[in-house]
Design brief:
6-stranded parallel sheet; 2 domains; Rossmann fold; Arc Repressor Mutant, subunit A
Length: about 220
Amino acid sequence: MKRFTEPLLLAYAEDHTIVRKGIVSLLHADTDIQVVIEASDGGHLIQQLEAAVTLPEVCLIDIHMPKMDGFECTSVIKRQWPDMKILVLTALTENIYIMKMIKAGVNGFLLKGCDIAEVKSALIAIRTVGQYYSGAFNKRSMNAMEDKLLTIPVLTKREHEVLRLSVSDLAYPEIAMELGVSVRSIQGIRDSLFRKLEVHNRASLVAKAVRMGLLYL
């Protein structure tokens, strides 16, 4: 394994404590890698980055986390620290998640089933060549990006609000009351969501939004 001249400083965000602690313990056995920040979710990671005296070179993050997920976390990091590298370690393999994270600016992907040697290899690759994609994500995912086989619809703030409430037991008139708008407005937003996600009913809307990473249950 190639040795670093200076240790790579790493931040790691993962909401499953046993997973995070196990990986941190294994990484600490390598003197070339120092985990300087541990976070339980994206928001916690951002807080620690903002308070850090010395910033990490790479952030290792999951996608599905509470409070602030990997999508939002990546957007914040790339906006505030554009040179910081991001390696995703996830169990999600659907192209829509991968494409969305690539568009957000991540530098690589690893599947959670990988071993610690591949995590270290990925960190070396990101430091030396700027990116790393494991076999599970490589050609298939990049082809989907290049061929534009998948598109993520852009939703307005109000559409996001209606989408979020569509998971609840509230009827559309109750959603209108919750948001302080007319029932007709909610119906128009609903129809817009149906068009953008190419669905025809509320159940299909929620299911597809989850698959696209627009909504978490």
